[in-house]
Structure formats: C-alpha cells, structure tokens
Design goal:
Elements: H1 11-24, H2 30-33, E1 52-55, H3 63-73, E2 79-82, H4 84-90, H5 111-126, E3 141-142, E4 170-175, E5 188-192, E6 219-222, E7 225-228, H6 233-243, H7 250-256, H8 266-276
Parallel strand pairs: 1-2
Antiparallel strand pairs: 2-3, 4-5, 5-7, 6-7
C-alpha cells in the first residue's frame, strides 16, 4: 500500500489512543497466548495437542481474527476449515452465518455437517488428542486447512440490497393442465423461483362460504425450483372416505365430474387418466 499522508487535524492523536487501547487489551487476547500452547511452551509446561475448527465466512468471529491466532501459535496444521461457501452453494436454505455449525442440529440442512464436526471432536478426545479424522461430508471440510490462510471476511450475503434477504417469488400458476378453464378447478400448479420448503398449513383452500376445504398438497423439485401441486386417483377415494361422498354429491362432482353430466362414472375415468395418469 502506498504511504498515506494525514491531513486531518486531530486524527493522529485519535489513532494513537486506538493503538494504545489495543496494546493494553493484549492481556485478554488469546492471540497473545497462542504461541505457548505448542510452539513455545512456558517453563515447566509441556506442549499441548490441539484441534481447531472454524467456518469460512463466520460473521461472529471473522476469519482474520481466527487466522491471527493460528499464525501466532503456528497451528495451521491442526486447523479444520468448514467450507460453508460450498455447503451454501449446494443448499441455499442454510443460514448465511455459519457460526453455530458445531451445534445446530435443529437445522435439518446442518445436521450431517454438525454430526461430522462433532464426531471429529469426539474422536480427538477419545484418543487423548492423538487422532484427527476428516469429518463427513468430506467435501465440506479441509483437514488440515489448505494454505494460504484466509485473510478476507468471506461473508455470504443474501442476494438483496445491502445483503437483505429476498423472499422466494412465484414464477407461474397453472390451473388444471393450462388449457382453457371450465368452471371446475381440479388442480393448481405453483412454481417458485428456487427450492423452498413448506410449513404445515402454508396452503389453504376456502370454499364459497369461507370455510376450509380439504386438499392434497405435494411438492417436487424441477430444475432447481420447487413445484407445488398434486392431484391423483387416490384423491377421489380420500375425498369419498372423508366426506361420505357419492357419485352425485356436489363436492364430489366439483372435483371429479370431468364431462359435466352431473355424476362421476366411467365416462369421467378417461379424461381423468389423461390429465393425471392414474385410473384408481
């Protein structure tokens, strides 16, 4: 970096206060003690077996703070680096902040990663610090970390202004098979712009009187997008069982009278099969 000339009156005294504060704070900085763990043990103290785990893009303990400790203690060969950037690229539903990757079993996408990191720690303790395994999923871990040490923040920011999260959006809604509508709606197929998961009760269907109407909700992933919408032959049986429907009941006709003749019979089976591919 080129030399910087200060032209702001009073800036240098402020900088000196900051520098002095940092020096005074060294008594509470683990970086000051890191060399004594293994590289230069204190008199009468033996070198310790060490394991160090950290995540790329940690926004609670930034990577430069961690690598300062690793450099001070010459501990890079004992460091395991969790590559949250790679895991997030595979599963964008993961949190953008990976700080809790060692404990977040409550997050489904983190579970295999958390278990792998915990197994590495457990093995280290069980062998009295003599064994450091490569955690699974192996593709998300560097054991030991590949040099050079990361000196950037490496934060993962959601794709929005100033890192604000952008909610999923609906790309399309298809009624029935997309052809010209009749008065009867058999299915809605909703395509989102990414992979999403649904909470219970995320979708609801109200009848004309405002009461909830039972429906079957299914989801699949097509080309990296979630597609919601499913009606099959089993829905007729579920409908009939749940509501005691007969071939001429209004609700049953609404869903399954394909030819519009006022009942559900064999004549409706052919159109149903062509639409849903299920003749149950």
């Amino acid at each position: 970096q080129s030399p910087v000339i200060n032209t702001v009156p009073g800036a240098m005294p402020i900088q000196e206060v900051i520098e002095d504060t940092e020096w005074v704070s060294q008594s509470g900085n683990p970086v000051a003690y890191a060399p004594h763990i293994r590289k230069t043990p204190l008199a009468g103290v033996s070198a310790k077996s060490v394991i160090y785990q950290f995540a790329k893009g940690d926004q609670i303990v930034p990577n430069p703070a961690t690598t300062a400790l690793l450099r001070a203690g010459d501990l890079a060969d004992r460091a395991t680096f969790y590559r949250h950037d790679l895991a997030f690229a595979e599963n964008p539903q993961l949190p953008t902040i990976p700080h809790g990757f060692l404990t977040r079993l409550d997050i489904p996408g983190f579970r295999p990663i958390t278990r792998g990191a915990q197994e590495q720690i457990a093995t280290f303790f069980a062998t009295d610090g003599t064994t450091v395994i490569h955690p699974e999923p192996a593709r998300f871990f560097e054991t030991p970390i590949s040099l050079p040490l990361p000196e950037e923040l490496n934060y993962i920011l959601p794709p929005g202004p100033l890192g604000a999260a952008v909610p999923p959006t609906i790309e399309s809604v298809v009624v029935n098979d997309g052809s010209a509508q009749r008065s009867m709606v058999n299915s809605l197929t909703i395509t989102f712009d990414r992979v999403v998961t649904f909470d219970p009760g995320a979708f609801g269907l109200l009848g004309q009187g405002g009461s909830l109407v039972g429906m079957n909700v299914g989801a699949s992933v097509v080309n990296g997008r979630t597609v919601d919408g499913d009606v099959d032959g089993q829905d007729r049986d579920r409908f009939r069982s749940a509501f005691g429907a007969t071939a001429t009941d209004a609700g049953y006709l609404w869903y399954f009278d394909f030819d519009g003749d006022g009942d559900v019979d064999g004549l409706d089976n052919g159109p149903f099969n062509r639409r849903f591919g299920d003749g149950n």
